[in-house]
Specification:
single chain; globular; 73 residues
C-alpha cells in the first residue's frame, strides 16, 4: 500500500466535489480530509482551509494540474 501525503488545500466543498469527481473518473487514488471543527466555531477552517486532498506522491503533479483546470473555469 502506498503512503498518502497532503497534496493541496481545498477552499470549499464545491472544489472538493469537482476534484473528487475527476479523480474518481481517472482512477487516481486519493482521499479528501475535511477540517471539521464545528466545536470551535470554524476557527480551524479560517486558519488551514476547508480541507485538503491527499494522494500518493507520484500523482501530485497530475492532481495539481487538474485542480488548476477546474478552478480556472
Amino acid at each position: 500500500m502506498e503512503t498518502y501525503e497532503k497534496i493541496l488545500v481545498l477552499n470549499n466543498e464545491f472544489e472538493a466535489n469537482l476534484l473528487e469527481e475527476v479523480l474518481n473518473d481517472r482512477k487516481i487514488p486519493h482521499g479528501i480530509v475535511i477540517s471539521d471543527d464545528s466545536a470551535l466555531g470554524g476557527i480551524m477552517e479560517m486558519e488551514i482551509g476547508w480541507g485538503y486532498v491527499e494522494a500518493p506522491e507520484r500523482y501530485k503533479e497530475e492532481i495539481m494540474k487538474i485542480f488548476e483546470e477546474i478552478t480556472r473555469q
